[in-house]
Write a structure and sequence with these properties.
The complex is a heterodimer of chains A (616) and B (537). Chain A has helices spanning 3-24, 29-41, 43-52, 83-102, 111-130, 134-143, 145-155, 160-192, 202-209, 214-231, 240-247, 250-275, 277-303, 308-329, 332-363, 379-393, 400-420, 433-458, 480-498, 500-521, 554-570, 587-596, and strands at 62-70, 75-81, 571-573, 579-581. With 616 residues, chain A is mainly alpha-helical. In chain A, a hairpin with a 5-residue loop joins strand 3 (571-573) and strand 4. With 537 residues, chain B is mainly alpha-helical. Chain B has a two-stranded antiparallel sheet with strand order 1-2. In chain B, 63% of the residues are buried. Chain B contains 25 helices and 2 strands. The chains are: A mainly alpha (616), B mainly alpha (537). The A-B interface holds A 69-75, 135, 138-140, 142-143, 146, 149-150, 153-154, 161, 164-165, 168-169, 172-173, 176-177, 179-180, 183-184, 186-187, 190, 197-198, 219 and B 338-340, 401, 406-408, 412-413, 416, 419-420, 423-424, 428, 431-432, 434-436, 438-439, 442-443, 446, 450, 453-455, 488, 490-491, 494-495, 498.
Chain lengths: 616, 537
């Protein structure tokens, strides 16, 4: 139990504990302050993790910690994270104080309950990304429904009861089926492997699940799609999202767009692809077609919206289509783009919902026919609005562009990659240029509807709803608090737009591993090997290895050795020297090493060996 | 005989308690009458500890008794909290003078006595190794509940409920007794282990199969499964809430224990001989499969239409029987299989979980009443209780979410057990139906949560007040804590359930031997045969 593990546990449990505390507060006026301070304080452990995270082996779960929970069930409280999980956790932690700040004047009802559930939600979302145990993942995944349901139901606008019920039932139905699918995988691994016991350890499951037959994988994939596709949401199960977004309070929309939708894409990345690699490969074109329909159809719906919030909600459906498209490309470029998109969409769309919330607080309408031309009256608001819209459209230099582009390039290349492998269309599972072309029209449509929105709302003659009078507490334009909430998001958008390589480097190794796993499972030749590929996703962005330390400390050395040791359990070189998944993984020993973590031995003697548990 | 005695200590203790309760409960002196619930408490506690030390038996489920009886005693204690409580002195004076008869609101002995009789019957069901014993135990479980329903409230609905319950119960009993008779006719024995041995040796004859099917359908009355579920909503609604809580747990547990034993004679893939497929004989499996699918769906869909909380809970109780049937169909798995593959362990664990959660939910309803003393029942009665009665409100929410199977509460783990065992036994379609039904159930449970917690804008038409029974609130709070903390410490419970569900496949034994060896009685038959070989190991 070192400081990093405490930090990680703190990120999961502190919000839950504080949430309960807020619920018990006597004075509801303190709720806001307690929630704000907590969410700000949580940045400290997150930064501690950031400084300790070793990006040179980003594909290996780090900060592993497991507490046996119900041994009879094989149930463990097991956490840890690779760089993909970590970046999503950072996004969650970053959005925490922002949504609390943004809620200060917007919430009029029972404040205790509101901030309590908002805080609890933070912990549950971190739990989803940090889980190394399947049931822990599922528990957190499901648990996020309850706080969000309450936030929408209690604090939403007029149609909130229908919206919250639809939100809960849609996602709950899907995830019950997902549970059945995941349980099937667990059962299969328990039967098939030499473990002799049921395991819920996600890396172990991933290592064995590929041995399922294609038909089994197909059903498992269908079950997982039922849950994750609803969450994303993928056409045609997206209908809950616009309703939920429109009716939710601002903070709810921001969390929903920023993080909760990512639970779906994260589920695709972490479970659907590795647990059913052949089936995902086989059905990738079908999934891609659904994604493209979503991109275009939702984009066209946006075009005719007059409610700004609904417009941005539908644009989420459209944008996440790109995200799924990148995943379905199943190559390094596409997957990297997709993960980049998860982060970037969280920033820009979250910010757009904040903008709309700020406007709504002043005008109590979201109809762009009744309100418009705000540039003269609210110049700061307009500046941010234009900025985030551009980020969302995909203006080069801002965050939307590299992620969207990488997704499309990945899709475009998907065909070529398989052809180069010498099996042109052997599985019929190649996307290819046509997919990219159709998806590309989505970018054009996005530019149209978003620019039309900005044009109507920000520019032209000033239009205000009849009977509008200034807000009691809020100035005409944004106040300092509101600017504070937007600034970090704007900086994030700019940074990721200008230097996407930082993120691409960080996620390179896990993405390579995933792609190598899919290639391996499908018997495809590929130049990627598990954990060893250091190539960048593409030649479009080049950047030298920024995270290598020049003179490795004993800690770093120990972790590198740990990394190699862990790899040696999973993979072995074949006759060509290419790393392949081992057939005979010694899971008992593997798990012991994972639990033990890196051991720093005497660096001076130069004998960096793994010590047994007795050493401690 | 001594072996039998050793496993019967909990029942004996409960019976002694029952007799004492009948005496003290009728005592003219109020001070002594007030001891009555304490005697029940002591008897149940002693029974709990006696059950803990129960030895293994030689039947098909050698380790079942300690777990089942400890569960019965523990949940029984919680239901006792619901039933007992301080007495309204004025009311009791009226009751004393014979002007009113409202047993549940005063320390009248008969109520406790019937309650204890029913629990004794339930424990006897767990010890049963013979069809006649099983029948008598099931009837001892049920008969007192008919009367409890009738005397639980002054209203006519209680009488109506009791009459319905009694007649349908009698019908159910007749049906399964008929089944038992056919099984006896087919095998020449009433001893369950012998029946199993005959089935294993000669296969299940058509008469035996019909007997088992009829018996299963008859027993489905106890668990409120389709097609014998019709009485449930009316009876739950007609009876007072504490009695409804008892009806949700006691007959259901008896029914599932009886089902385990009856189906154990046919075996999960062992009776047919060579192939240890892990499946029940196809006729039984198909029947149970259809019953399970219909029971879940009917329960959940009809619950969506209700506006009375008790009716919602009644239909949810039907649905939960359907869920648990999945575990029964899955069976115990191969010997030594873990919790995840052992459907019977999942059922036993689910029964405990269900008992805890449902007691909590009914405790909340029982703790609320209108100004005129009528129970809270309509869904509007619980509107906004999180604000007006936070403890009751949160108890309700926690218990309802657990009943929904919402992680990370106890009901979730219990449901995962059913999922895994169903999949491990190859019943994937059934598990998908279970998953979809869980989602349907979300709709009405969510309605309860939303009404209690969120949609408190409109004031209820007739406000509710806490009822004068603090112990009911205690029971609710204990359930809520149980739902949260039993999850954290569920390891021994899970291990206990797996141990209890150990199924010893019968050794094939031809019918002639069983029938002619010693025709004088099942007890001596057992002695004559000695212990079946597997138990010797």
């Amino acid at each position: 139990m070192n400081l990093e593990i405490w930090s990680l546990l703190l990120l999961i449990f502190a919000p839950v504990a504080v949430g309960v505390l807020i619920g018990l507060l006597r004075n509801p006026d303190y709720a806001y302050r307690v929630a704000l301070v907590t969410s700000l304080l949580l940045i400290i452990p997150a930064l501690r993790l950031l400084s300790a995270f070793d990006f040179s082996m980003a594909g290996t779960p780090q900060f592993l910690h497991a507490v046996p929970w119900v041994p009879g069930l094989g149930l463990e409280f097991s956490v840890g994270m690779d760089s993909v999980s970590f970046l999503l956790i950072l996004l969650t932690v970053l959005l925490g104080p922002i949504v609390v700040l943004a809620s200060k004047t917007a919430i009029t009802g029972d404040k205790r309950m509101y901030y309590a559930w908002l805080t609890v939600l933070q912990g549950a979302m971190v739990g989803v990304f940090a889980a190394q145990d399947l049931l822990l993942f599922y528990t957190c995944f499901e648990f996020t429904l309850l706080p969000m349901f309450i936030l929408i139901r209690k604090y939403g606008s007029t149609n909130r009861i229908a919206a919250s019920t639809k939100f809960f039932l849609y996602t709950f139905t899907g995830s019950m089926l997902t549970l059945a699918g995941l349980v099937y995988v667990v059962w299969f691994v328990a039967q098939d492997s030499q473990l002799g016991a049921w395991t819920l350890h996600i890396p172990t499951l991933t290592a064995y699940a590929a041995e399922m037959t294609l038909a089994e994988q197909g059903w498992v994939l269908a079950a997982m799609l039922a849950g994750f596709a609803v969450k994303v949401p993928l056409f045609p199960v997206h209908t809950w999202l616009p309703l939920a977004h429109t009716e939710a309070p601002t903070a709810g929309s921001v969390i929903l767009a920023g993080v909760l939708l990512k639970l779906g894409t994260y589920g695709f990345y972490r479970f659907a692809i590795p647990l059913a690699p052949q089936a995902f490969f086989e059905y990738a074109p079908a999934i891609a077609v659904l994604a493209i329909i979503g991109i275009i159809y939702a984009g066209l719906i946006c075009w005719v919206q007059t409610d700004i919030k609904k417009l941005v909600a539908y644009s989420s459906v459209s944008h996440l289509g790109f995200c799924i498209l990148g995943l379905a490309a199943l190559n390094v470029t596409g997957l990297s783009g997709s993960i980049l998109y998860m982060l970037s969409h969280g920033l820009s769309t979250g910010a757009l919902f904040l903008m709309i919330g700020f406007m709504y607080e002043r005008y109590h309408t979201r109809d762009m026919n009744t309100v418009g031309g705000l540039a003269t009256k609210m110049p700061i608001w307009t500046t941010f609005m234009v900025f985030f819209t551009m980020a969302s459209v995909g203006l080069p230099g801002l965050n939307g562009f590299p992620s969207e582009l990488l997704c499309l390039i990945g899709t475009f290349q998907s065909d070529a990659a398989w052809n180069a492998a010498g099996e042109p269309g052997a599985w019929g599972a190649s996307l290819g240029p046509w997919f990219a072309v159709f998806a590309g029209t989505g970018m054009v449509i996005a530019a149209m509807y978003l620019l039309i929105m900005v044009g109507k709302v920000c520019f032209g003659p000033l239009r205000e709803p009849a009977g509008h009078h200034p807000h009691n507490e809020l100035p005409t334009d944004l106040n300092l608090r509101e600017i504070t909430t937007l600034t970090p998001l704007a900086i994030g958008c700019l940074l990721f737009g200008l230097q996407p390589t930082i993120l691409l480097d960080a996620i390179n190794e896990p993405v390579n591993n995933t792609v190598a796993l899919v290639d391996e499972a499908n018997g495809l030749e590929s130049d990627l090997t598990l954990n060893s590929a250091r190539t960048l996703p593409s030649n479009y962005f080049t950047h030298d290895q920024g995270f290598q330390t020049a003179d490795p400390s004993p800690q770093v050395l120990a972790e590198q050795m740990y990394h190699e040791k862990v790899n040696s359990f999973m993979t072995e070189p074949d006759e060509n020297g290419v790393q392949r998944l081992r057939d005979d993984i010694d899971f008992a020993e593997f798990k012991r090493v994972l639990d033990e973590g890196p051991v720093i031995s005497d660096a001076a003697a130069g004998t960096m060996e793994f010590q047994g548990a007795a050493h401690d | 005989m001594t072996e039998k005695l050793a496993i019967l200590w909990p029942e004996i203790l409960l019976f002694i308690g029952t007799c004492l309760v009948m005496i003290t409960g009728q005592w003219p002196n109020r001070a002594i009458r007030q001891f009555t619930p304490w005697i029940c408490f002591i008897a149940l506690t002693l029974a709990f500890f006696a059950a803990m030390t129960s030895p293994s038996t030689s039947g098909m489920f050698p380790e079942l008794i300690p777990y089942a009886k400890m569960m019965i005693a523990a949940v029984g204690l919680m239901i006792l909290l619901l039933l007992s409580g301080t007495v309204d002195r004025r009311l009791e004076a009226e009751v004393d003078k014979g002007r009113r008869f409202e047993s549940i609101r005063s320390n009248r002995g008969e109520f406790y006595a019937f309650f204890m009789f029913s629990l004794t019957g339930l424990m006897l069901t767990a010890s049963a190794d013979d069809l006649i014993w099983l029948f008598l135990a099931l009837e001892l479980t049920s008969l007192p509940t008919y009367i409890m329903v009738a005397i639980s409230r002054e209203e006519d609905t209680a009488l109506e409920a009791a009459v319905k319950y009694f007649f349908l119960g009698a019908l159910g009993a007749a049906i399964f007794l008929y089944g038992f008779a056919l099984v006896y006719g087919a095998t020449g024995s009433t001893n369950l282990a012998e029946i199993a041995a005959v089935f294993a040796a000669e296969g299940i004859s058509p008469i035996g199969m019909i007997g088992l099917l009829v018996a299963v359908i008859g027993v489905s009355f106890k668990i409120a499964a389709v097609p014998m579920h019709f009485y449930t909503p009316d009876v739950y609604q007609g009876a007072a809430s504490p009695v409804s809580a008892m009806l949700a747990f006691v007959p259901k547990t008896a029914g599932f224990l009886a089902l385990m034993m009856l189906l154990g004679t046919a075996g999960w893939g062992f009776a047919s001989g060579a192939d240890a497929s892990g499946h029940l004989p196809i006729e039984l499996e198909a029947t149970l499969w259809i019953m399970a699918a219909l029971t879940m769906t009917v329960g959940n869909v009809l619950a969506l239409l209700q506006s009375s909380v008790k009716r919602i809970l009644a239909y949810s109780s039907i649905a939960h029987s359907g869920y648990m049937l999945v575990g029964i169909i899955a069976g115990p798995g191969s010997p030594g299989s873990p919790f995840y593959e052992n459907g019977l362990a999942a059922v036993l664990f689910y029964l405990l979980t269900y008992g805890v959660m449902t007691t909590g939910t009914f405790a909340v309803l029982a703790s609320l009443e209108h100004r005129d003393g009528k129970e809270a029942d309509h869904i509007d009665d619980i509107r906004g209780i999180c604000k007006s009665h936070p403890v009751l409100g949160w108890t309700l929410i926690i218990c309802v979410l657990s009943t929904l199977g919402f992680p990370p509460l106890l009901g979730f783990i219990a449901k995962v057990g059913l999922f895994t065992s169903g999949i491990a036994a190859g019943h994937i379609a059934l598990v998908v139906i279970l998953a979809i039904n869980s989602a349907i159930a979300a709709a009405y449970y969510l309605r309860l949560v939303a009404v209690a917690y969120i949609d408190d804008s409109e004031k209820p038409s007739s406000p509710v007040y806490p009822s004068p029974f603090p112990m009911r609130r205690v029971a609710g709070v204990i359930s809520a804590f149980g739902v949260i903390f039993l999850l954290v410490f569920s390891a021994p419970l899970v291990d206990g359930a797996v141990n209890a569900a150990t199924f010893v496949a019968p050794t094939p034994q031809p019918a002639d031997a069983a029938a002619t060896d010693n025709p004088s009685g099942p007890d001596e038959n057992t002695m004559a045969l000695g212990d079946p070989p597997p138990a010797d190991d």
